[in-house]
């Protein structure tokens, strides 16, 4: 059994033909971008537009996922749909689906439209981009990141890989921040949610501590928490954030 869905409104005729079925998507060739044991990412050009195609040959690290629960590809496209529904800027999902045989996951894919003119924050850090030294630019991006992170957590959802490489920013005078690549995001409750929130915030600070000042990092946290100053709970949470990756870097 195979199911495949297209976001018809986001595609022109050439792209509709190129992405018409799961079979045609797995036959496409493109520029290799990334590969891991479960998936492959290609950049493909159709007409004058570019797309990112992620093809999955595995359901997830847990072998039971081939039979039970959500395959990783389904989690990824559903999480992008959550972001769009919550008003979080993200890549436009244009095609998604999977194939099963006798209930067993065989393969799946999702396609997103390229966010033209964007660079991930980790690349900016590696290149010592001058924008990271521009206080006004940092404030604009930090405010958007605080809102994005707060929105996710308010829905009891955590990204689980909230690293600078998964945050894209455009080159406009007023930057827009986009959140991408979230196959391991999940909804959580109680102490599990609190732990995962700490992990998300620690992932962000893992790079921020080398490129931003203590004041900038504190302002981000206060913006995220929507407080004018730290309370006792905030101070304990910040200690947990700072200690999260100790001994693991």
List keywords for this structure.
8 helices, 249 residues, Transferase(Phosphotransferase), domain 1, 2 domains, alpha+beta, three-stranded antiparallel sheet, Phosphorylase Kinase, domain 1, six-stranded antiparallel sheet, 24% strand
What order do the helices and strands come in, and which of them pair?
Blueprint: E1 2-6, H1 13-18, H2 22-27, E2 31-35, E3 39-46, E4 49-56, H3 72-85, E5 93-101, E6 104-113, E7 118-120, H4 121-126, H5 135-154, E8 157-158, E9 167-170, E10 177-179, E11 186-187, H6 190-211, H7 214-225, H8 232-243
Antiparallel strand pairs: 1-5, 2-3, 3-4, 4-6, 5-6, 7-9, 8-11, 9-10
Helix pairs in contact: 5-7, 6-8
Shape from CA axes?
Answer: globular
Radius of gyration: 19 Å
Q: Could you say how many structural domains there are in total?
A: 2
- Largest sheet, spatial ordering of strands: 1-5-6-4-3-2
Reported CATH architecture of the largest domain: Orthogonal Bundle
Question: How large a portion of the residues is in β-strands, by DSSP E?
Answer: 15-25%
Give a structural overview.
By secondary structure, the chain is an alpha+beta fold. The protein has two domains: 112 residues, Phosphorylase Kinase, domain 1 (2-Layer Sandwich); 126 residues, Transferase(Phosphotransferase), domain 1 (Orthogonal Bundle), CATH 1.10.510.10. 39% of the residues lie in helices and 24% in strands. The protein contains eight helices and eleven strands. The strands form three sheets. Strands 1-5-6-4-3-2 form a six-stranded antiparallel sheet. Strand 5 and strand 6 form a beta hairpin. The longest helix is centred in the C-terminal third of the chain and has 22 residues. The radius of gyration is 19 Å and the shape is globular.
């Amino acid at each position: 059994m195979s199911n495949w869905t297209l976001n018809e409104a986001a595609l022109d005729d050439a792209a509709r033909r190129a992405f018409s079925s799961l079979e045609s998507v797995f036959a496409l060739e493109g520029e290799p971008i990334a590969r891991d044991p479960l998936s492959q990412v290609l950049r493909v050009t159709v007409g004058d537009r570019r797309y990112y195609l992620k093809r999955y040959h595995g359901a997830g690290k847990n072998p039971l996922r081939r039979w039970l629960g959500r395959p990783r590809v389904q989690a990824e496209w559903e999480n992008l749909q959550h972001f769009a529904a919550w008003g979080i800027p993200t890549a436009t999902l244009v095609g998604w689906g999977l194939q099963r045989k006798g209930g067993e996951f065989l393969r799946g894919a999702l396609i997103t439209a390229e966010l033209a003119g964007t660079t991930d924050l980790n690349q900016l850090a590696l290149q010592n981009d001058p924008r990271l030294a521009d206080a006004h630019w940092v404030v604009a991006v930090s405010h958007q990141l605080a809102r994005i992170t707060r929105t996710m957590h308010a829905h009891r959802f955590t990204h689980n890989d909230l690293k600078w490489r998964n945050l894209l920013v455009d080159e406009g005078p007023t930057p827009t921040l986009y959140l991408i690549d979230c196959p391991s995001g999940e909804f959580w409750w109680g102490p599990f949610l609190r732990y995962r929130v700490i992990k998300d915030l620690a992932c962000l600070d893992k790079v921020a501590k080398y490129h931003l000042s203590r004041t900038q990092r504190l302002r981000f946290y206060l913006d995220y928490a929507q407080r004018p100053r730290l309370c006792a709970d905030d101070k304990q949470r910040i200690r947990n954030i700072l200690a999260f990756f100790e001994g693991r870097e």
